[in-house]
Amino acid sequence: MIWGIVFWVSVFMILHTYLLFPLILKILASSKKQNDILFSREDELPFISVIMAVHNEEKVIIEKVRSIFSTDYPEEQFELLIGSDASTDKTNEIMNIYSSDNPGLHFFAFGQRRGKGEVINELRNKARGEILVLSDANVMFSENTLFELAKHFKNKDIGLVGSNLLNSNKDKTGISIQESSFISRELRLKYYEGKIWGTMMGAFGGCYAVRYELYSQVPEGYTVDDFYITMKVLEKKKKSIQENNAICYEDVQNQIKEEFRRKIRISSGNFQNLRSFGYMLWPPFTGLAFCFLSHKILRWLVPFFLLLALISNAFIYEKNLVYTVTIFGQLALLLLPFIDLLIRKIGLHIVLLRFITHFYSMNLALLIGFIKFLTGRKTNVWQPTSRVEGKQ
Questions:
Q1: Could you tell me the residue range of the domain that residue 157 belongs to?
Q2: pTM of the entire predicted model
Q3: What total of structural domains would you count in the chain?
Q4: Partner of 358 for a Cys bridge, out of 107, 131, 178, 366, CB 3.0 to 4.6 A?
Q5: Taking a C-beta distance cutoff of 8 angstroms, is the pair 263, 221 a contact?
Q6: Biggest alpha carbon distance in the chain?
Q7: CATH number of residue 129's parent domain
Q8: pLDDT tens digits along 171-220
Q9: How confident is the model at residue 59 (pLDDT cuts 50, 70, 90)?
Q10: Given strand 48-54, what is the order of strands in its sheet?
Q11: Are 151 and 157 in contact (CB under 8 A)?
């Protein structure tokens, strides 16, 4: 009896976070309006400080800077602050030359590795803007990115606004199609959460805007700074939303090993944030608690639900035909990533099969990240994933 309960509870939790929760959000969002208290282009717009922590970004840094200064936001109304976290390539050399000809660009070279969180903390203290836009070097702005982010801050209840990341370079030889699908799904959920309750669960760190006074210093050793900053905004009873018209472009990761390494680091940071913000599940039955539990916490626990579903099913598979089918179904699914690995070696790439590989590998990364979190093994040394060279 107990194993049957464990099995069905585990299955329900997985189905809830991946299927039921998105469906509930879609239904609720259909009757809601996005924030409509907005700055117009004729208004006096807030001064923005764009902040970037970089490490060895020589391949993309010039293209990124050009994309920022090519936006249609008034140039006298924003500044760009870049902090190099002990870069060892030509990033510092490039930026020293580039900043000397551009008074709106302020470049700071830090000699010792300190991690992304500490760099953006330092840059925030040097910033002059009412609004901070935090961004990554490989995320390129479109013409209207800054305005579409800034326009929402006319509403005093809005504390943080996320951008809409569009992915390019999709390639069936790796996981870029699957990763792009995951990101698109995440952005859709974030948009619904913000639209319904103003509780977008963590901006994508590639580009988002936050009020200067609502920015909270990222604690030393924290690895998922974007989620931490978002939750601190919600803690202060301000809203976080997603603006789909604030478009940015990012080359999505195609190499599963690179993405696996990044997901382990993020996973460890997820559990850091759970330790810090678990109390926000109370009071229950609020939009914030519902989103935090359904979108994030249950998702982080999926590896454990997968294990529990398999173990409990093994104890009851002879009870009836349903349990027999489910145990063999689970075992078959676990074999598919290994089959994918074998056929990939001969140059055969099946997109649906790669989705299953992506699902299991990312959940394995969550499990490893949890173990690293428990054992206190540090993963806060920031190492950007490989970049595709920009147009310089």
A1: 1-392
A2: 0.94
A3: 1
A4: 178
A5: no
A6: 75
A7: 3.90.550.10
A8: 788 888 899 999 999 999 999 999 999 999 999 999 999 999 999 999 99
A9: very high
A10: 105-110, 78-85, 48-54, 131-135, 207-211, 158-168, 239-251, 139-141
A11: no
